[in-house]
Amino acid sequence: MSLTTPETIRTLQRKLYAKAKQEPAYRFYALYDKTYRADILSHAWRLVWANGGNPGIDGISFEAIERGEGVEGFLRELARDLQEKTYRAQPVRRVMIPKADGSQRPLGIPTIRDRVAQMAVKLVIEPIFEADFCDHSYGFRPKRSAFDAVDDIANALWAGHTQVIDADLSKYFDSIPHAKLLAVVAERIVDGGILALIKQWLKAPVIGEDEDGKRKTVGGGKASSVGTPQGGVISPLLANLYLHLLDRIWERHRLKDKLGAHIVRYADDFVVLCKRGVEEPLTVIRHVLERLGLTLNETKTHIVDAKETGFNFLGFTIQMSRGAKSGKSYPNVRPTDKAVKKIKARLTELTQRKLTCIPLEDVVRNVNRSLKGWANYFHYRNSSNKMSEVRNHAEERLRTHLRKRHKIRNRKAGLFKFPRRDLYERYGLYKPPTEAGWKSAHASA
To answer: Which PROSITE patterns is this protein grouped with (predicted)?
Structure first.
């Protein structure tokens, strides 16, 4: 299934972006009819299908749609409902995702039908807002990544912005005020049909389960005035759009120059790198967030001198270090201890004794899948030592698994029986790269 954006859609997106870029005050009023275009809905389906995920509250899966009415029939019916404005958003299914600290994060799962509708709207409106977003915003944006944000931070550290406000927002997705968010959307889009759809998704009831497994409403609904469930296709764009107000104030008032403070934001995660103290920038942040109806989590917001200690951002620990040979300072970017601990625990889980009853090929395949995914993200900048640590753990865990499988109790005998070369060449273990993942000229200092 091709995920390449059809040229007809790309042409539309380019025109919308160009118009928005050329006329910052222009308000778009004729967009709704684009949402039920056959090419846009078809591409929206492909994107949602590629993202996968579980069924929503209606229990209807991708396979059920394909086996039942078929994708064409499904999209035809959705197009009709959108065109006739009889479309109604269904409740969102809430599941709780365990976090590393033992707490749980709520995740909202819309139905596939609603996900496709949200994706169709996103395809149409995203280019408009993309034209407005600031250069220091990186999260959930086309052609931008976490690595770009990390590089921006590294460059700011190089430039002497080493006093860092490591900010954390209190329950951001649950706190976004609907009225203010819709007002921000309406600064650019006055198409009533689009605004009505977004309002439906914001107001959709959220259904969870009680201790007995019975469904109950846990949020949302017409009376709800705050929050956008994490998990919806449209939610990251809306959440990004609301915090764009902070970015906009930072740029319009030239606070980077006036306060010596550079902000780097990835969705609701952001840091402010300061050159002339943190007091004034922190005061501005608190004031702006208060106006937005948001608050800093004071217990998780930290002030850090990056020359003395590191701070964590997007899974990396970042701090200024000195080169062993040159003695020169450079931004040291490496996987966090938490990220290393998590992948090591996962590899241990995938090679435990009770799995000796399943085919060895399946064990190695599962290990490789987790190992590759982790390495693909974290093999970046100054990652050598952490990558070696993870690779050594993977070798030791597979060797231990092989000893258990072949009932070899002696650890030294296992080392002789299953040497490193055999782990890779005979058993097919994936070998993560352990050289530094240099991605910029600054990183090699």
So the answer is: RT_POL
Other beta carbons within 10 angstroms of residue 417's beta carbon come to: 14
Q: Which of 1-5, 301-305, 408-412, 436-440 has the lowest mean pLDDT?
A: 436-440
Question: In terms of residues, how long is the chain?
Answer: 445
Instruction: Give the 3-state secondary structure of 365-411.
Output: HHHHHHHHHHHHHHCCECCHHHHHHHHHHHHHHHHHHHHHHCCCCCH
- Decide if 140 contacts 238 (C-beta within 8 A): no
Task: From 207, 206, 209, 210, select the one nearest 229 (Cα to Cα).
Answer: 206
> Residue 52 phi/psi, 5° resolution?
70, -150
Instruction: State how far the alpha carbon of 30 is from the alpha carbons of 16, 124, 162, 173, in Å.
Output: 11, 11, 47, 29
Chain CA centroid to CA 292, Å: 22
Q: How far apart are CA 6 and CA 142, in angstroms?
A: 16
Tokens standing for 31?
A: 């967009």
pLDDT 10s digits, 325-383: 888 899 999 999 999 999 999 999 999 999 999 999 999 999 999 999 999 999 999 99
Which three-class secondary structure string do you get for 331-348?
EEEEECHHHHHHHHHHHH
Task: Show the tokens assigned to 204.
Answer: 């959709």
| Residue 189, beta-bridge partner list | 28
Provide the total of helices (H) and of strands (E) in the chain, helices listed first.
Answer: 17, 11
- Give strand pairing partners of 107: 95
Q: Are 271 and 165 in contact (CB under 8 A)?
A: yes
Q: Are strands 269-274 and 311-313 parallel, antiparallel or unpaired?
A: unpaired
Whether 396 contacts 344, CB under 8 Å: no
pLDDT at 409 over 70: yes
Contact 154, 381 (CB under 8 A): yes
What CA–CA distance (Å, rounded) separates 442 from 445?
Answer: 6
Residue 78, helix vs strand vs coil = helix
Q: What is the DSSP string of 136-148?
A: TB-TT-TT--HHH
CA dist 152 and 156 (Å) reads 6
pLDDT digits (tens, 9 = 90+) for 226-251: 888 788 899 999 999 999 999 999 99
CA distances from 145 to 47, 395, 436 (A): 18, 31, 19
Element (DSSP H or E) covering residue 207: strand 206-209
pLDDT of residue 98: 77
Task: For residue 336, give the nearest of 263, 385, 287 by alpha carbon.
Answer: 385
433: which DSSP letter?
Answer: -
Q: Where are the domains of the chain?
A: 7-134+172-241, 336-426
